[in-house]
Amino acid sequence: MRLALGVAVLLAVAGAAGECAARILEFGPLRGLKTPSAAARIAAPGDVVRIDAGTYRDCAVWRTPDLTIEGVGGYAHVRDTVCDVKAIWVFYASPVRIRHVRFSGASSVRRNAAGIRWEGNGLLVVEDGWFDGNQMGILTHNQEASRLVVDRSRFDRNGDCEKFCGHAVYAGFIGSATVRESTFTGHRFGHSIKSRALVSEIVGNRIGDGPGGTSSYAINLPNGGTAIIRRNVIAKGPGSDNPFCAICIGEEIAPPGEPVGAAGRANPSRGIRIEGNYFTNGTGNPDTAFVWNRSPHTVSLSGNSLSGPGIRYVAGPRPELEKKKDAGGKK
Predict the structure, then answer these.
(1) Res. 212: pLDDT tops 70
(2) Which element (helix H / strand E) includes 326?
(3) What is the pTM of this model?
């Protein structure tokens, strides 16, 4: 039980056989375990790791499956230090559930340091998380067995680089990505939500540039796939790095006859449904499309409300924008 380490460990008894259930590991400034990395080193499968509210300038690599990690008494704030040149917290096993933790200031020379880097082959759930001032918020790998769920979380001023770096949520080629009831404000350069997942569910979020945001796309499905995008409030601001699109689909799929690179495949699709969203175009650009679909997938739109100039739906290439691109303008 490692009592010699001064860890507050509580053992529960499960069933008549007296089997031990999950331990509770507690750490904080006034406890025997004082940092996330110390807890990560001794965590065992099934443990619940509880973090006292406070600020921790410490990164951690978590290699243990079946963990629940949660802030207690407010947000546990981990910041500024990156492990493996990847993230403040890096996970190599699953499943993992994270609650009430704030991640700030992730930065590296690679310009893709994240609050959380997910390398586990299974499920990651982030509830009531807060990501601010990172180069990326959450970044996953490309294992199709993996799933990501982000619920009731907050993303502020990520993509924090002088030049382009990353996205607030970036799901690679995983099985599914769910982002719901979360807020995205003031993102810079990259996209608020980018998903290469086979199935993407993006529901009930508020995504806005605000006066200082320079994000490119609000929602990006570069390889298409199956998706539901429903009840989101989306606002592009005057500083958007790419004013031509709010929800962009399939722009990285390799055209017919061209080699399919690592990112150029088209995901299989059972359709993409975009329903009940509210979009405000604050760029002033009449070429802004609410949805621009360059994939071969079927996209259905219903019940969406649009405010400001622009176009509801565009399919395929847009010759006027390709001309601007060839002339040196932004794509």
Answers:
(1) yes
(2) helix 319-326
(3) 0.90
